[in-house]
Amino acid sequence: xxxxxxxxxxxxxxxxxxxxxxxxxxxxxxxxxxxxxxxxxxxxxxxxxxxxxxxxxxxxxxxxxxxxxxxxxxxxxxxxxxxxxxxxxxxxxxxxxxxxxxxxxxxxxxxxxxxxxxxxxxxxxxxxxxxxxxxxxxxxxxxxxxxxxxxxxxxxxxxxxxxxxxxxxxxxxxxxxxxxxxxxxxxxxxxxxxxxxxxxxxxxxxxxxxxxxxxxxxxxxxxxxxxxxxxxxxxxxxxxxxxxxxxxxxxxxxxxxxxxxxxxxxxxxxxxxxxxxxxxxxxxxxxxxxxxxxxxxxxxx
Length: 301
Description:
Blueprint: E1 2-4, H1 19-39, H2 47-50, H3 58-72, E2 79-85, E3 91-93, E4 100-106, H4 116-132, H5 139-152, H6 157-161, E5 164-165, E6 170-171, H7 178-192, H8 205-219, H9 230-246, E7 256-259, E8 266-270, E9 277-281, E10 285-289, E11 296-300
Parallel strand pairs: 2-4
Antiparallel strand pairs: 1-3, 3-4, 5-6, 7-8, 8-9, 10-11
């Protein structure tokens, strides 16, 4: 049984505490689906497809939204049966063999219908990952994987939009922080040229998206990428000189590391699109195609 994190329990955590697991999740998704497979999710689920008005029938409306998300996530054979009950978590799904999947939502969604789509998006992504055979060890990391995939494949903007915070109360769905949701949305936007911000109804969603986008931009400005700033290039030059003197540095800490030595010195660095570690010889300005996502990266090694 897979659960979506409960909402409103205590203060909302901010920042990027799960960033390394999020990056690993994006890499794993590219490896499993391929860049061509991910292109099939170029358009996010649209607000009109998951809208839920107060006058809509609760169960029929939930089924309609679930059906829209099933279609968006390319699960045409999966039938979702949605129910409501009192529970600690926001939602859960039984990951049996199918063809029917049973999703239970917390009773609170009877009163907060605008967030039903967010809860369903996470649970239906659990079904997708189950069918793909893609999982991380441990509940925490697997839930972070699910949040990341939900967002990267175009349904997770709903989870960020479910984040609300004021002086007396707060609500957040999922395991990622609001800024981490923004980070994944920005990574997706960089690939598909899609701006999700017009869809936000929560006043707190846009600032979180902007904070995440700023963090995502840093990934494309790390040496040896040509977008690196002056300070980064200066640090890289120093590290490259030290690596050459010591015959390479095997440590993978930080945005880059070195291997080999002399004429065979190579730099290893993360692809800003998918996070895959790439290796290239240290020989000035070069272009390298990422072996996982196919992005062409211009580097000044």
